[in-house]
Amino acid sequence: MEANLEPQSRESFEAPVREFEDRVLGYARALVQDQARAEQITERAFAAVLTAPDRGRALEPRLAAATRKLAGYKAGGPLLPTLPASDSRVSRDLHQRILDTVEDRQYTSNPARSRLIAVGIAVLVVAAVGLAQLQQ
To answer: Alpha-carbon distance 47 to 80, whole Å?
Structure first.
């Protein structure tokens, strides 16, 4: 089954962001002990997971793994099936930054760039063939 790599609407990923953002932030803060860095990790973890080709798989363990990786922990450590409970609360500003980061990543990730390059090459080939036929 081929993954759907089409960009999602902001509304389609807002619900999972709301569901997990506090716990992702709390986990990131516990790992790095720095609020600003934890916020950056939270943004990047959501962007990486929600724009991945395998976005249909279980979200929570993937968010936990991405958070751990972005915090600098090696992939060989224990994987969490769920994010730990947290008293952290994501601000409205951070929530918007998370959504913006996910949205931006959809158009700048490798699959999106690859798709744009493929379309550009196809257009050039069609133009070259058309030009060659006109010269005959």
So the answer is: 19
